[in-house]
Structures are given as C-alpha cells and as structure tokens.
C-alpha cells in the first residue's frame, strides 16, 4: 500500500474561515514537505489550489529526499509537448520522484483560464493529449493531428529518469472512466463509501480490460482523517470542526458547487445534501465515514473519524474493495501529518523510508538506550 499526504493550501485549523486559515508561504510548505519526507509517507499530492503546483513542487525538491511529488496538471491549459518537457526536467532534478495527476477541473474553473470546452470535450481533448504525451515520454518523435491537438515532429531532447513516469488521474464521469481505462496507471476517487469505490473499480477495470490494461491500472482514494486516541476524542474533534462551520461558510461553499458540471463533485455533494443537520453523526454515511467536510469545501469532502484501530479497520475495508493507494490529509496539514504518522501509519502495510536520526526515549537504563541507538 502507498500512503501520500497533501501539500496544498488553504490550510489551518478551520481553513474555510478567515480567522481559522493559516498564512501560507514558501517556508511553511518547506516545513510540511520536510515533515512528510521525514515521517515516511510515500509522497504528497500537490493539487491545483493556492499556488502553482509545478513551481511549488520544483521549489520543494531540495527539501525532500524520498517522497514522490504527485503534481496536478490540467491538459487543456498546457501543450502536451511543454508538459512532457516539464516532466522530464522535474523527474531528472528530483531523481525519478515524480508522478503526474491528470485533472480536468470543471467548466467554471476552466473558463477562468480562458478554456471553454464542454465536459465531454475536455475528456476528448485529454485523450488526444495523453496519446501525444505518452508517445513523447516513450522517446518517440510524434506527429499527431486530432480534433484539438496538432503537433508536428515533436520530440524530447532528453528522457525522464524513470523509464515510465506514472500518470495518475481523478474523474468520475463515464467520459473520465474511458480516458482513465485507456491511459492511466493510478485512478483516484474522492472518499466515497467502500461499496461505491468497489463499484467504480469494477467499472474502470472492465473498461481497461478492453484496452488489454485490466492489470495495468490500480486504484486510490483521497480522504481526510480525523484520528484521536479514542473514538470519543475523534468525534469531539469532528464536532469542533463542525461547530466552526457557520451558516455563511456552508452557504458560500454550496453556492460554489451548485450547478457544477463535475460528476465527481456531484457525487461528493450527494453525500451531505448541502444542509447541515444539528447532529453531526447524521452525516456518518458509512461506519466512521463522515461527509461533513464537504459542507465547507468543494472537492474531497469526507473524513474517516475514529480511533487508530477504527481508522485502520476502515482502510482495510477500502483495501478489500481494491484500493491500493491512500491520499490522506488533516487540518492543519503539518500537525495532523505527525498525528497520522504516529497513530495510523505504523499499522498500515506501507514501505516507509527510515527517517534519519535515532529514536531516543527517557530511560534510566542508559546502556540499553545506547545499545538501541547503536
Ligand atoms: C483525488 C483527486 C484529486 C483531484 N485533484 C484536482 C485538482 O488538483 N484540480 C482540479 O481541477 N481537479 C481535481 N480533481 C477533479 C477531477 O480531475 C475532475 O476534474 C472532476 O472530478 C470532474 O470530472 P468528472 O466530471 O469526470 O468527475 C481531482 C479529483 C480527484 C478524485
């Protein structure tokens, strides 16, 4: 299993509120990146968000040794040849620690950037884009003329470090599933229930089989985690977040997602229905899976809430459903990375990179302490 953390703003104890959001700057991202690396996460997702994910990721390479940067790219905003060159540069400079997350946004977001493709045309575009990108990354000289993309004699001056740069992807519509089945290595879903995840996995795998890729694709899930020593303390922490979800914040977030053409978002919104019940447990849509976060943010809106044992059990449910990758986060990102890494990560079958340094504990037996650290 691979476990990634999250490295994108906004952040803070209550990032949807002015008084709960934390100032973000380069030094703070360095701290999170160093923590994620030291704690032994497989990597971190840099989504499109507060900062440009590629510049942010590149700037953090010197502060990390092991972790994989999973960096989001919107196909309609870039030439596939330019992205291939960015990939090669990043992969070389990070010594093969790049994964690319192909994302499609939604019509409103894309319009801000000057792109006005319909939902399914965005995926038709992405299909052409990935065809060209894959060819370039294989070292081919590519001439391609499609409906949207026309490149002539394109090629890369240098290869990436990795023979195969992994392409990841999120998108829940039928058009998205078709593209994922054809091109993608790791298909991601926001945190739906294990049953919903399993149904998607079946569908995407069946489509991949048509391209002879049933075993070439694997699956991941993006979840918040609210873990505490006891279940009671975890729900108290969720209650604290809930108490800070004022009416204006909920109304603002729900207005943003109303009428959005993202199927993934529609599926997330359906898990809470856009209204805030008095009792937060009414939003426990499956054991320990809470949809309350979606009330105040678009995109990933669910959290696993519980004791370490419960969180590990629920993750096992996802693994039984076919999930091999977890992208987790908490609020704030820095403190919750430590909490998750100490309470949950040691109980997951993750290949962790041993952090530098030795563990020490207060002990009267100095000899034993010296032996343990030798
Ligand atoms: C784990 C995950 C991460 C995502 N990250 C981004 C992102 O960084 N930027 C973005 O615009 N969309 C992101 N998305 C959204 C999807 O790429 C996609 O645009 C959205 O689900 C709409 O497509 P759909 O209608 O096929 O679901 C993400 C989705 C998932 C599941």
UniProtKB/TrEMBL annotation:
<keyword id="KW-0560">Oxidoreductase</keyword>
<protein>
    <submittedName>
        <fullName>LLM class flavin-dependent oxidoreductase</fullName>
    </submittedName>
</protein>
<dbReference type="InterPro" id="IPR011251">
    <property type="entry name" value="Luciferase-like_dom"/>
</dbReference>
<feature type="domain" description="Luciferase-like">
    <location>
        <begin position="24"/>
        <end position="323"/>
    </location>
</feature>
<keyword id="KW-0288">FMN</keyword>
<dbReference type="InterPro" id="IPR050172">
    <property type="entry name" value="SsuD_RutA_monooxygenase"/>
</dbReference>
<dbReference type="Pfam" id="PF00296">
    <property type="entry name" value="Bac_luciferase"/>
</dbReference>
<keyword id="KW-0503">Monooxygenase</keyword>
<dbReference type="InterPro" id="IPR036661">
    <property type="entry name" value="Luciferase-like_sf"/>
</dbReference>
<keyword id="KW-0285">Flavoprotein</keyword>
